[in-house]
């Protein structure tokens, strides 16, 4: 999985190192990716723990138990895959149109990570890359997840197939009532409610939330 961290700049390393440590060891088998070891991860964690959220744009999970849980929830066909960062608000700006443009060349599943201004981390795995559409798309592999207050995934209920729908002014996931996850055109605000598609709990304590950062892998 593609991994990125940059101490002192906008875009930091993510939890993918902990997902597949065998892919990111000193052997450096994967070219063009940053190689880190456990001591370096510990140092980075220490730096992050000492740094206020106002100084860092970060979507990261540093607890290996959480990262293992999410990795285990991924479909078998993508487990062990090397993921690459496709879109980041810190790097590409806050624009849903830019997100669509960055995901347009992709023909594989994507992982959406969101951090709100209260540092809650949640998101979605989509079987299809995000795009503007006239109807809903995706498969039953799609699911929502949250890390706060504890890690939970919300898989397809089988009740409907309203997995994902992309508009120029919003991105919507889940339906049959309120949306499970909704993001606005500027990727500044979003909403999360229980929906029939995933029978999920709201992903954040704030059902109407303000976004700090978004990443698509």
From TrEMBL:
Domain TLDc positions: 60-217
Record PANTHER family: NUCLEAR RECEPTOR COACTIVATOR 7 (PTHR23354:SF68), NUCLEOLAR PROTEIN 7/ESTROGEN RECEPTOR COACTIVATOR-RELATED (PTHR23354)
The organism's place on the tree of life at top rank: Eukaryota
PROSITE patterns linked to this entry: TLDC (PS51886)
GO CC annotations, alphabetized: nucleus
SMART domains, per database record: TLDc
Protein name: Nuclear receptor coactivator 7a
GO BP, sorted A to Z: regulation of transcription by RNA polymerase II; response to oxidative stress
Pfam families associated with the record: TLD
